[in-house]
Batch of 2 targets.
Target 1
Amino acid sequence: MTKEINDIQAQVHDGKTAGELLRAARTTGRRKRELQTIARQLCIREEFLEALEACEYNKIPELVYILGFARNYALELELDPNIVVQKIKYELGVLKIDEEDEEKQDDDAQNTQADCVAQCNKIPTAAVAAGAGGDAGGFFARTWKYFAGGAAVILVLAVFFALRGRAPETAEQLVVAIPVAEQQAPATPAVRATPEFTVPVREAFGLANRADATVILQATAETWLKVEDARGETLFSRVLSEGDVYYVPTATTRATVGNAGGIDVWVNGRLAPRLGGDRVRRSGILLTPAALMPE
C-alpha cells in the first residue's frame, strides 16, 4: 500500500497540470481524438472538457461536477482517474500534501474505480478488504459463508440423530429421515409496471436491472447522477441528458443528484414526488419504493 501511495504521489507532483495530462492523452499517440466526439460519448458539454484541459475550473459550476467530469474524462482517455482528480484538488487548494495519504486510503476503501460506472461492482467488497488488510477480519469476510453452511449441516445432522436415536445405516435413509421443510406460499411478486415517461427515452442505463427494477429514474433536464450500494461502493456515475433512463437495482441503494428538479422518479410505474428543486444538489437519497413513494 505504501509503495502504491508513493507511486501516485510521484505522478501527482510531477510538475504537469491535470489539464496538460488530459490534453496530451487526447492529442498525442495513435489514438488522437476530437473533443466533440468525446463530449458526445460522455454526454458532457464540449466547453466543460475544454475548461478541464485549460485548467479553467471556474467555468464548471460546482466542485462535484469538476471532479466527476474529470474522472470520466480520464477513464475515457485510459488515464488513472485518481491521479487526475488528485492533481485538480491540489490546483484548487482543496487538498494539501500532508492530507494525501489519508485521502488515498479513503479512495482505496471505496475501490480504485468506484466511480467507473457499474462494471466495478463485479469486485466483491470482501476481496478488496482482503487485499488491503489481509487480517483476520478479511479472512472471515471471505469465508463466513462456508462456516455458516457447515454449521447448518451439523445442526441438521444433530437433530436427525436425536430423533432417530441411532446413526442411519445407508445414505438413502439419511435423505428420507431429514424432514422436508414446510412449503410456503410464494411471495407476491413486486409490481413492475412500465412507466409512461414524460419525455422520449434517449438512452437507457442499468439494463441488467430492467426486468426487476421497481424504481426507475429519468432525466428531464441535464443532471449528474451517482448511485451507491449499501456499502458505499459506486454502481453508476455520469451526467444524464434529457430523456436518459436509469434502472435502479432492487438492492438497497442511495443516490446523489446535481439537479434534483431535473429527474423524474417512477415507483412501480407511478410518478413519485420530486426529489427537490431545480439546480438543487441532494445526496443520500434512499432509492426504495417505501422511501420514494410514502403512503
Target 2
Amino acid sequence: MANIHDYIKSYGSVSFNDMPFGEADNVALCEIFYLQLEKIVPASLDDEPRDFADVCKEFYELNGCKHHAVGLVLPKQISVLLQEMAKYKRFQEMKIVGCTETFSVEPAVQFAAATFILPDDTKVVMFRGTDDTLIGWKEDLDLYVKKGIPSHQLAVDYLETVAEKFGGNIIVCGHSKGGNVALYGALGCSEKVRSRITALYNNDGPGFDNYSIFRTKAYQELLPKYHHIVPNSSFIGMLLAHDNDYSVIRSTRLLGPMQHDLATWKFNGSELQTADDLSVLGKLNDLCLNKIIFNVNEEQSKSFDVVAKKLIAGTGQICLLGFAKNAVSSVRGAVRSWKEIDKDTRDTFAGAFKKSPEYLKEAVATVIKESKQEKELAKEPEAEQLHAVKAETVPA
C-alpha cells in the first residue's frame, strides 16, 4: 500500500508550479520537521533563506552521515525521508528560514516553528508536534487539564511575525500538538493576517478545553480553507472539544495511537486514501475519552499537574529515549516520587479515572445504538421501493 515515501518518488519530479502544494506535501513537511532543523537554519526571519537541499545535506553531515532516530517514538525513517526529498526537484525548489525553538521546564513549553518558501513565494508555516522530551509530553497534559498552553501564544506571535516580514500567501500546517497550535495560531492572529492564509492543515491534532472557539467569526472565515485530517481510529484527534469538519483517512495500523504516526497513512497517488467515517474504535475513543476529560474537575486538574511534575523529576531523564535506556532506575525514581506526594493529592488524581469503566460502557451502548439506527435507515429505501411495487400490482 502506498505511503508518503511512494508519493515522494512518484511526484518528486513535478514542480510546485505544475502541481500546487497539497495535503501530501503537508504530511511530508510535518514528518521531517520532527528533525531538529534549527541546528542548521537560524531562528531569525531576517537571515537569508536557505536552500532546502543544502539544509538536508548539512543536517545529514552533522549526524555523521548516518540516519538516527529522533527519539523513542520517532524512528530514523524520518531522516531517510528527509534525504529522499532532497533528491527531487519538487522539494529542491523550496527554501527554509526562521527555524525557531522554545523550551522551558516551568511552565512546560516545547515549541518549534519554521517557514518553508515555495517557488511562487507562498510561505508554508510549520509547527512541530510533541517531540521526545518529557517536558513536551507534560505540555500535552497541560493541554488537557489547563485552559490553554504557552505554545498557543507563541504560534500567534510567529505567524504575525512571518506575515509582517514577508508578503504573499500563507499556508499553515502541523501534526499532533502542532496541528492544535497551528489552528489556534491561525484563529488568534489578526484578521489581516488570517485573510492571507490560503490553507490550514491540522493533522490529527487534539481539540481545546471548550467548543466556543468553533463558534467564532475567525473559525467561520477559516473553514473553507481548513483541512482537519484524522485516521479512521483516531485517538489524539478526537480528544477534547473538536470540530466535526474533519476528513477521515486510512492507516496501515489498526489502533488509534499507532495510526497517529504519519508514516502509516495510506495514499492514492498524490492524495490520502479516505474512509467514509470513523471506525467503531474511533467513535469509542471520541465518546469515552472526552467523557473522562470533561468530567475532570479543577481539583483533579491541579493534582494532574503536581503528579506529572513530580514523576518527571523523579525519573531523572530529559527524554523518552533516556527513560527507555535507563528503565530500571527511571521507574524506581518515579515510584519514589509518587510515594512522596501527599495522600490526598494521590487520591484526587486516581479519582479522575474511577468512572472510566462506566464511561466505556456508555460509549459502547451509544455506538451500538447508532449502528443499529444506521442499518435501519439504510434498509428504508429498499422497503419503500418494495411497497411501491406491491401497490402497483394490487388490482384496482
